[in-house]
Write a structure and sequence with these properties.
- This protein is of the alpha/beta class.
- It contains 6 helices and 8 strands.
- It is 36% helix and 20% strand.
- The longest helix is centred in the C-terminal third of the chain and has 15 residues, at 155-169.
- The model has no long low-confidence stretch (mean pLDDT 96).
Length: 184
Amino acid sequence: MTTAVLIIDMQAGMADRIAAGRAPVNPAAMDRMAALLASARARGMSVIHVHHDEPDAGSPFRKGLPGAEPMACAAPVAGEAVLWKHRSSAFAGTGLDDRLRRDGIDRLIVAGAVAAFCVTSTVRAASDLGYGVLLPTDALLGFDLPAHDGGRIDAATVQRVTLSLLGADFATLTTVDQLAAEAA
C-alpha cells in the first residue's frame, strides 16, 4: 500500500480556542502531531495539509486571517500540498481524491482537528471511497460540545464515542508511536 499523511485543520484558530480556556481532550496532540510529521518526513512520505476556509465573514478560520494560519506543530514544509476546504470533509470540493489517485495513494494516516467533526467526515469519506485509514488517536484534537437536549457533553466522552464509531467500521485506531514502530 502507498500511504500519505493527511493533516486536517491544524490552524491557529484551534490554538486560540485552547488559549481561551476551551480544554482539548488530548493536550499532547500538538506534540504528537509534530512527532507524526517528523517521522513521515524522515521516511519520505507524502504529506497533505487541508485547511478550513470558513465562508462566514466572522469566522477566525477564514483564509487570510490569523486564525487560518497553520499551527507551528503542523506547518507545511516546501513540497507539501496545502488544500483549502469550505466544508467538513477534506474530500468535498478540494480535488483530494483525484490527487491521491493520481499519486497512487491507497491508504491514509489522518490526524488533526476536530476529531468529532472534520476528522470524522474525512475518515468516513475516505473509507467510502475505498482508502484504508489509519487514525493515530493521540494526534487528534477534540473538544466538548453542546448536547442536543441541553447542557454540554464533556470532551472525553465526545472523543470516546467518536473513536468508537470510527474504529468500528471506518479506520484502524493506532498511535503515533505504533505507526513509527511499524515503519521501523
